[in-house]
Each structure stands twice: as structure tokens, then as C-alpha cells.
Give the backbone structure.
Amino acid sequence: MADPGVRLTAWVHGSVQGVGFRWWTRCRALELGLTGYAANQPDGRVLVVAQGEREAAEKLLELLEGGDSWPPRPGRVDKVIADWSAPAESFAGFVER
């Protein structure tokens, strides 16, 4: 049986809206082979839901938290609250919402 992978749900706090953060996150997620979405929240956070192999999801989380990447991460991230679970639904690609 194939490994269903993991689901990363991350709430990114900081100056992350209106700076290209969702686009940047989408690019990194697609490079890592993840599916899901990045969505602005009314309180200024960005919600990132990514599913796929654990190693890829852990790398995305590292990048969201400020790991080295090219192009550099836009905006300013103050903190990332992450939650891990089993995949809950299937996504086609990775989109900005």
C-alpha cells in the first residue's frame, strides 16, 4: 500500500499579505511536489495547507520559518504555528486562495 503522506497545516504570522508570499509559497510547494493551498486570512496571517511526502513538507515548513531559499522569502515572518495530521482531502496542484 502506498504511503498517503502527511498534511502540514501552518499559520504564518507577520507581514505576509500583499508582498507575494502566497505566490512564493506556491512556487516552493510545487518544486517540492506538494499539493494544497496558501490563503490570506482576515487577521493578517497566511494559512498554508500542504500534503505530500513528509520530507518535502518538513522542507516547506523550514522555508516558511526562514530557511535559505532562492528567491528569498518575501515579507516578514514573525512565527509559524504548524500542525501535522493525515491527509484529509485530495488537492489538484497547489494554488493561491
User: Anything to note?
Assistant: The two ends are 32 Å apart (CA to CA).
